[in-house]
Amino acid sequence: MSKDLVEYRRDSALLSPINFLERAATAYGDNISIIYNDHVRFSWTQTYERCVKLASALVHLGISHNDILYIYSIRASGI
């Protein structure tokens, strides 16, 4: 880090997809994160909660850290 820059704690945390979603849900809660067509909208909180539910379901199925997961999905009209 350059000696001319001041390191702030909030900026020094490494972001992964997991903690990015958690931080976005905390910081932006009810703000819109996903808009699909004219009728589907999700807030950051809803997006985070859906991701946690998906992760929980995958663990329940026996999928664990370092397993390779392949998802084949056809683009659908609803989320």
UniProtKB/TrEMBL annotation:
This is Acyl-activating enzyme 21. Gene3D superfamilies: 3.40.50.980. One of its GO terms (molecular function) is ATP binding. It comes from the Eukaryota. Belongs to the ATP-dependent AMP-binding enzyme family. The gene is AEE21. Keywords: ATP-binding, Ligase, Nucleotide-binding. The keyword ATP-binding applies.
